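Re: beginner question about structure tokens

> Can someone show what the tokenized structure looks like for a real chain? I only ever see the sequence side.

Sure, here's an example I had lying around. Input first:
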Amino acid sequence: MFNLCKIIYLKNKSNYYIMVVKKKGGNKQKKKKNNVSEEIERELIFKTDDQEYAQVTKLLGSCRLELQCFDGKTRLGHIRGTMRKKVWITVNDLVLISLREFEDSKCDIIDK
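And the corresponding structure tokens:
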């Protein structure tokens, strides 16, 4: 027990008090240690006529992303509601997007 801890002696007038200071973190550290990320293999979902593949270049906040599409255009992507807080998207991820008929510069993210 004492090899992981640091002992501090505090002097209070005529008495000495021993305090044990933990070098390791609390419960949060233990949870992080056991959480090992593994790469998951997923099946490729093929695109249809109104869909396209894109790569995430920037996270903008408010469920918005800047995407570089495979057709050469840069678009503003919006994460749909069923993917929020369930599927985490980071920079350089490949996503499947749905193109909008009325706005060419914006799209919706369908799948990661």
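Each token stands for a local structural state, so reading them left to right follows the chain. The chain is about 5% helix and 45% strand.
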